[in-house]
Amino acid sequence: VSRDKLFLESGYNKQESFDALLHLLDFDLRLVTRVDQENDEGTAEDKPKCPKFQLTHDSLVGSLREWLHREDAASFRGRSRLALTERTSLWSTTQEPRQLPSLIEYLRIRLGTKPTQWSDTQRKMMQQAGRRHTWRTTLTAIAVGSLAVLFAATQRQTAQERVDALATRLRDARPERVAPIVEQLVAAGPA
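Predicted structure:
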């Protein structure tokens, strides 16, 4: 902001009083910083010699955000907060299921953050993700359980058929071939 604009906005009537205030803010308190006009478009000769100022913290906002992001990324809880924020940002624009956190992300967020600190949007997204993952996990468990039962039944049926075949061979076998068939029946185990 130019010095002239600041003077107009300040409500000061005297240049000397405003200059004293600006000196105090710039040199003593360091709340404002003189901005180099050569960074603006054009050269210093093209511009009038009116200095510009910015709030000191304005130039620090980007650096502070980067630093905070690095600090968060350094810990499990911080990475969880970042994942929650990122997923919520993606999900809140479209609210599509594909924008919900994956099961691993969901578990990491649940373990690394406190639900009491979630915003309403974060809470709604996590509830929807929780229902989705509960439903998918239940269906997967049912499918795996059904396959395990089917496999066990097939194995039992195959073992029973093998025992039946050996029993038939034993019934029709000559006496000298009975011992090897009995060994195979013992090895097959109970059916």
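Summary: Helices lie at 3-10, 15-28, 56-73, 76-94, 103-112, 120-172, 178-188.
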